């Protein structure tokens, strides 16, 4: 009887999986067997192509962004500009549910010629400039203090008339209006998706007349329990979601903003503080992001297939199984990061990330070839 009971119990997930498979088959997304087209690329990652006729495009009067994305650009390595360019060309779309803030880090207070930067959509993407005296999260903190309202830990708005005079967008960003927040920098390149995945999503969009944007890969992982998501999770020096791209919601952001206020009411620099050294930035910003989220009772997650079943809220899981940085070559069970696994990869001058960068470069070339061939045909 016990064996039969166990057998019947073990069939439950199989039967559930079977029904899901049957439902997916009933949708028959590939019944037309159409050849792969550039449309599949442009529909999902939103390059400068026109929107699909079957997809509704929000008008200015009804448009509302659910996501605030802050991208810090610093031209401190030879791949920084190309990383920015790739992201804008392959991810940023007009009225795609995101307000994009690109902060250009100046050197010696020299203004950056924005006409030489990748062009942005006019309605929902903006360049700001800031002297590179803070690292990434300190610069984001500067933006929050100068151009946003809605911080629950601030009694008054810090937005002043002088700030608005330097604000070309003439906008105040109310962080209470957004559901999700994405923070990233120019040390990463992405997004990367395999063509068959893009084709499936394109068919899905046409079938259900509903968009599926690139950032859903991250925002859909945020829920009542999980408040921090990113491509990779590292264990050195402590377990943390690596900060070159992180996603949270308003609850998670509230936790991170609170890190600047102690129980005694004294103001500290916190996660978004401006620290003078890289060591302090790593300690009090990059590593503290995960620490603050976990300490508040929430969970974290990453895209890495290796860690999908690991509950990082448990102390015995926080050592992971890979001691080191996952983007280091040959560091994950003898292999290297796969761009199609984590969507964004570290792409800078560090020699320990050569294999992932090489794969990303090849995939980029293949996608360009697909686009070129489709335009010619």
TrEMBL record:
The chain crosses the membrane at residues 7-27. Keywords: Membrane, Transmembrane, Transmembrane helix. This is Uncharacterized protein. It comes from Adineta steineri.
């Amino acid at each position: 009887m016990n064996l039969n009971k166990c057998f019947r119990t073990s069939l439950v997930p199989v039967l559930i999986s079977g029904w899901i498979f049957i439902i997916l088959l009933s949708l028959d997304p590939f019944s037309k067997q159409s050849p792969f087209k550039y449309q599949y690329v442009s529909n999902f990652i939103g390059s400068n192509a026109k929107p699909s006729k079957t997809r509704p495009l929000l008008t200015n009067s009804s448009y509302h962004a659910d996501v605030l994305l802050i991208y810090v650009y610093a031209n401190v390595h030879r791949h920084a500009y190309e990383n920015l360019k790739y992201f804008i060309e392959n991810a940023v779309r007009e009225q795609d549910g995101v307000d994009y803030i690109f902060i250009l880090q100046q050197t010696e207070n020299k203004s950056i010629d924005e006409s030489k930067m990748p062009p942005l959509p006019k309605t929902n993407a903006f360049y700001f400039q800031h002297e590179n005296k803070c690292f990434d999260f300190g610069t984001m903190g500067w933006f929050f203090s100068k151009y946003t309202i809605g911080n629950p830990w601030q009694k008054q708005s810090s937005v002043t008339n002088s700030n608005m005079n330097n604000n070309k967008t003439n906008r105040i960003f109310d962080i209470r209006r957004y559901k999700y927040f994405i923070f990233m920098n120019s040390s990463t390149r992405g997004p990367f998706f395999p063509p068959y995945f893009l084709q499936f999503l394109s068919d899905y969009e046409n079938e259900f007349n509903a968009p599926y944007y690139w950032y859903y890969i991250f925002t859909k992982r945020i829920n009542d329990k999980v408040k921090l998501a990113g491509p990779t999770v590292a264990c050195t020096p402590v377990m943390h979601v690596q900060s070159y791209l992180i996603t949270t919601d308003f609850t998670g952001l509230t936790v991170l903003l609170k890190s600047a206020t102690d129980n005694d009411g004294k103001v500290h620099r916190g996660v978004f503080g401006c620290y003078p050294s890289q060591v302090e930035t790593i300690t009090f910003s990059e590593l503290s992001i995960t620490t603050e989220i976990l300490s508040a009772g929430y969970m974290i997650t990453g895209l890495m297939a290796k860690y999908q079943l690991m509950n990082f809220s448990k102390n015995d899981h926080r050592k992971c199984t890979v001691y080191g940085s996952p983007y280091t070559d040959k560091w994950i069970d003898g292999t290297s990061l796969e761009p199609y696994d984590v969507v964004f990869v570290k792409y800078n001058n560090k020699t320990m990330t050569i294999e992932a960068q090489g794969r990303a470069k090849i995939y980029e070339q293949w996608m360009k070839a697909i686009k070129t061939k489709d335009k010619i045909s």
